[in-house]
Design brief:
This protein has 146 residues and is of the alpha+beta class. The protein folds into 2 domains: 53 residues; 79 residues, Double Stranded RNA Binding Domain (2-Layer Sandwich), CATH 3.30.160. The chain is built from 4 helices and 3 strands; from the N terminus they run αααβββα. It has a 3-stranded antiparallel beta sheet with strand order 1-2-3, covered by helices on one side. The longest helix is centred in the N-terminal third of the chain and has 36 residues. It is flat.
C-alpha cells in the first residue's frame, strides 16, 4: 500500500522558492533544482507520516484517551494549513472515544466526528479526510460569496 502524501503539499513559501529557482536559472539548470526541492519536500512528508504512525502506535498501548488527544492535535495542525476567512473558526476535541471537529460560521455550526479505531493508518486517513472536508466547506462558501 502506498503511503499517503497530501495533495498540494507545497506551502506558499516553498512555491515562492520554486519560482525563484526557476526564474533565476536557465531551464536546463532549473529542472534539476526544482526536482531536488520537490523530492526533499516529499521525503520530509514521508518522515513526518512515519513519525505520526510510530507515535500513535506508542500512545495506543497506554490508553485510548492519549491516543485520541494526539489525533485531535494532528487535526488542529491540519486545519492550521487551511486558508480561513476571518468569519470562520474551528474547534477540535479528542476524548476517550474519538475526535470531534466543529466549524463555526456566524450562527452556523458544522460538526463531524469519528470514533478512533486504534489503527494508526485508518485514523490518520480519517484526519486527512476531515481536513479535506473542512477545506471543501470553506471553498464552497467562498465560491458562493463571489
Amino acid at each position: 500500500m502506498k503511503d499517503y502524501v497530501p495533495k498540494s503539499s507545497l506551502t506558499p513559501d516553498e512555491k515562492k522558492e520554486l519560482v525563484e529557482v526557476a526564474e533565476g536559472e536557465s531551464e536546463k539548470e532549473a529542472v534539476p533544482a526544482v526536482t531536488k526541492l520537490i523530492k526533499d519536500k516529499e521525503k520530509r512528508e514521508e518522515e513526518r507520516h512515519f513519525f505520526e504512525i510510530d507515535r500513535l502506535d506508542q500512545l495506543r498501548r497506554f490508553g485510548k484517551e492519549d491516543y485520541t488527544r494526539f489525533l485531535a492535535d494532528l487535526m488542529r495542525v491540519r486545519l492550521q494549513k487551511v486558508d480561513w476567512p476571518l468569519s470562520w473558526s474551528y474547534q477540535v476535541e479528542g476524548d476517550n472515544k474519538g475526535v470531534i471537529m466543529e466549524l463555526y460560521f456566524g450562527r452556523k455550526v458544522f460538526r463531524v466526528a469519528f470514533k478512533a479505531t486504534g489503527e494508526a493508518e485508518l485514523d490518520l486517513n480519517a484526519i486527512n479526510q476531515f481536513g479535506e472536508r473542512a477545506e471543501n466547506t470553506v471553498d464552497r462558501w467562498k465560491t458562493k460569496k463571489n
